[in-house]
Structures are given as C-alpha cells and as structure tokens.
TrEMBL record:
Residues 1-18 form the signal peptide. Pfam families: MORN_2. This is MORN repeat variant. The keyword Signal applies. SUPFAM superfamilies: Histone H3 K4-specific methyltransferase SET7/9 N-terminal domain. The keyword Signal applies. InterPro entries: MORN_2.
Length: 256
C-alpha cells in the first residue's frame, strides 16, 4: 500500500513539474514604446531557449515585430503584423545567416516583389504579384545568378477612373518590379485617339521613381481639358549585357 502511495505521489509531482515547466515556456511582458503600451510575448523551447517573440497590443492582438529563432539563437524569420495579419516585409533565413526568402505583404496579401535565394546568397527567383497575390511576372536564375527564364511583365497599375469629366484629375500609380541584375527605365506615353500621330512621352528619372519596399512606383496626376479618348501607356525598358526588352501596359481613358 505504501509503495502504491509513493508511486501516486511521485506521479503527482511529475505532473506538477511538467505543468510548471510548460507555464515557464511562455513569458509576456508589458512595455512602453513611443508612448504606447504594448505586450511582448516570448515562447521558449524545451531547453529554455527563445523560440519565438511576438509584439501585441493590449488586447493581445499581434501588432508589430515578429521573430523566430533557430535553436542556436540565430534568426530564422523576421516580419511584421498589423491586426494579426502579415504586413510589410517578411524575411526567412538559412542557418548560415543568408536570406532564404523575402516576402512583401500589403493589405493582407503578398504584393509586388517576392524573392528566393540559394543558400550561398545568389538570387534564385524573382516574382512580381498583383494586389490580390496573383503572379504577373517570374524570373528564374541559375546558381551563378544568370537569368534562365523570363515570363510575364512586372507592371501593376492603379488609377482612380478610366471615365472622367473634362477638367477632372486623372490619378495613376504604376508599380514596377526591378529584377536583380537588370537595369530599367520607365516611360509614359499619351496619345489622343482623334490625333493618333501626336504622342507625348515622359521618361522618369531615378529621382522621380519612388523606391518602396515592395516595388518601384511612378505617378501621373493630370487634368485633361479636352474631351475625347486617350491611350495612356506605361513602358518599362529592361536591359543588361544579355537582355534588351520592353514591357508595357495601357489604360483606355475617356474624357466626356
């Protein structure tokens, strides 16, 4: 009977110890950053080494920096949350510290430039996604960084309307992908349907191209005073010692 009691007590102690151990694997600390109260949630592995770290708001919703670590303490993943949704740039690392993958997120979807790398740090693939996460463009590289596949066009256009009244402002934002190892230029051409031979063209300087985390952006804001139909074409010229090509996308604009 005493042996059974001792076994029972030993079992209870083991269970209590395991429960305490599990409780110690999560630590939540309140901090004040830029005048705002936040929570830092840390998760530890069975060896009491930091495995993950979240930033949360006071309602315990993921909001801010996220990090995940390899068992040896090296960074494995870093990213950002907004209202518990992935946002901004997420980077995944190999154990040797080189980047394995770079994702860009915008409004709860992957958007714009997405990159994969070989373990030696050489670019492996470059994708350009639309605002819904659909692929517009893909470039694959071999292990030396040479381009072996080029598919699609890395251009995404957003605009306020394709049908406006004379004098209203037309607003267009063009997001362009810049694959590694390739230079590019951006031009915008406009011509009126009634006067097809009269074409106005503007080439954007590098100072006029906004370098965003997920894309390169050019803007066109213009008021059309004359009624008619216009064709607005965005042209991106890509070039290096082996590539010389142009991709384009157009908007049919009606001014009443």
């Amino acid at each position: 009977m005493r042996v059974q009691n001792r076994k029972f007590v030993l079992l209870i102690l083991i269970l209590l110890n395991a429960a305490c151990s599990n409780m110690n694997k999560v630590r939540i600390e309140k901090k004040v950053i830029d005048g705002k109260n936040i929570l830092i949630k840390q998760i530890f592995d069975e060896n009491n080494k930091l495995d993950e770290e979240y930033t949360m708001n006071m309602d315990s919703v993921f909001y801010g920096r996220y990090s995940k670590f390899y068992p040896d303490g090296k960074l494995q993943t870093t990213g950002f949350y907004t209202d518990a949704e992935k946002d901004s740039t997420w980077i995944y690392y190999f154990r040797n510290g080189n980047i394995r993958e770079q994702q860009n997120w915008f409004i709860h979807n992957r958007f714009g430039e997405q990159k994969l790398y070989y373990e030696n740090g050489v670019i492996r693939s470059f994708e350009f996604l639309n605002l819904s996460g659909g692929r517009l463009f893909l470039v694959n590289y071999d292990s030396t960084g040479q381009i072996v596949k080029w598919e699609g066009a890395p251009i995404y256009i957003a605009y306020n309307s394709s049908s406006l009244k004379a004098g209203d402002e037309f607003q267009m934002y063009c997001f362009v992908g810049g694959p590694e190892g390739v230079s590019f230029k951006v031009r915008v051409q406009e011509n009126k349907e009634e006067v097809p031979n009269k074409i106005s063209s503007k080439e954007y300087s590098m100072e006029e191209i906004h370098n965003l985390p997920y894309a390169k952006k050019v803007s066109l804001e213009k008021r059309y005073k004359e009624k008619g139909r216009y064709l607005v074409t965005i042209i991106v010229d890509y070039y290096n010692d082996k590539i010389n090509r142009s991709d384009s996308s157009s908007i049919d604009l009606s001014i009443d």
